[in-house]
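Hi C.,

You asked whether I'd gotten around to modeling the 113-residue construct. I have! Everything is below, sequence then structure, no commentary in between.
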Amino acid sequence: MKKIIAGSVLSILFLAIAGCCSKPPVKEETPAPPVEEVKKYDEKNYGSVVYIKQDGGFFGIVNDRGEKFVPDLLPDMFRFDGLRVFFDYQVLEFKPGSKKWGVPIQLTVIRIE
């Protein structure tokens, strides 16, 4: 009888220790949002408005990568040298006689940053 009690006590003790040391249940991770919803800093879309004195003077945008752009129409409220902006654009076809300082673009979005 002592063997049965000792065996039962050892079994209960083993189960109690095993239960305390087991790993917690693994939680299912929330899936990452689709790529379209992740908004990251993209240095090609942030830059500064600059005034260029050549060809009679005009405004351009230099993005944070150092790439130069010449918008076809830059609204008056953004015509300040050094103004930080976020912008998006479509590249325009290069036309003979146009400014060769940077890539000609049509702004689709621009806002002060």
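If it helps when you're writing up: The first helix runs from residue 2 to 21.

Thanks,
B.
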